[in-house]
Specification:
Layout: E1 7-11, H1 14-17, E2 20-22, E3 25-28, E4 42-48, E5 51-57, E6 65-74, E7 77-87, E8 99-105, E9 112-117, H2 127-130, E10 134-139, H3 144-150, E11 156-157, E12 167-174, E13 177-182, E14 190-192, E15 202-208, E16 212-223
Parallel strand pairs: 1-6
Antiparallel strand pairs: 2-3, 3-16, 4-5, 5-16, 6-15, 7-12, 7-16, 8-9, 8-15, 9-10, 10-11, 12-13, 13-14
């Protein structure tokens, strides 16, 4: 299971990422890591399933989230990205390939909202595990275990996922509400009507949990 963690910050510059402004959308190919400042995780560009992508590897400390901050302010709008996560070699048996996106990240990276996926749960033989394929958290006050204990099934949901395969995520945020769409479906796969940080603002970050071998590609941010 994913442990309670504190922030680890990796800074990414617009020029490094190849930022392209298109009307009000910001596009980040995530095909370069030149000049990045990683903490206790490794960032590199690799070829993965036919494309160049940002590869994040290594195990965050027991007290640290793996975050890579993206240089764009975000309040309301749409976040689209492709991610691929799988348990890292030698990871604990509880590793699920945790990977996703944090948004409305505070200046000190200590507060943020996040949607992430557990790819190994998507096709598990255990239905309860399948129901835990998608997750919303809000740090530091609402980690996954508190949300699951206090509101079973409300902040988690099912989606068909495969470890190590590109998965399209779309997050639509408006005020204190957010919706997660997976792999181009017309209806949201997870709905949160009470974001725990309220109607806040911050930056974005690539997010990875412990025991994960993670890949990120084709980030696009469209503010409202």
């Amino acid at each position: 299971m994913l442990a309670k963690l504190l922030p680890l910050v990796v800074f990414i510059g617009p020029a490094i990422l190849g930022l392209h402004a298109q009307s009000q959308s910001n596009s980040f190919p995530l095909n370069s890591v030149e000049g990045l400042k990683p903490g206790n995780v490794k960032l590199e560009v690799v070829e993965f399933h036919g494309r160049k992508a940002t590869h994040m590897s290594g195990t965050p400390t027991p007290t640290g989230h793996a975050l890579a901050l993206v240089p764009v302010k975000f309040h309301n709008g749409t976040i689209e990205i492709e991610v691929a996560g799988q348990p890292a070699a030698g990871a604990d048996a509880a590793a699920r390939g945790f990977i996703g996106v944090a948004f409305r990240v505070s200046a000190d990276a200590g507060h943020f909202e996040c949607f992430y996926i557990r790819p190994t749960n998507g096709r598990a033989d255990d239905q309860l595990r399948r129901n835990h394929s998608l997750q919303y958290i809000s740090e530091p006050g609402y980690p996954w275990d508190r949300l699951r204990k206090e509101n079973p099934g409300v902040y988690e949901s099912y989606a068909d996922l495969e470890p190590g395969s590109w998965t399209k995520l779309k997050i639509v945020v408006a005020g204190a509400k957010a919706q997660l769409y997976v792999n181009g479906v017309a209806q949201p796969s997870l709905i949160v009507n009470d974001l725990k940080l309220g109607d806040s603002e911050g930056t974005l970050a690539l997010w990875m949990g412990p025991g994960t071998d993670g890949y990120f590609s084709n980030l696009r941010v469209t503010p409202n």
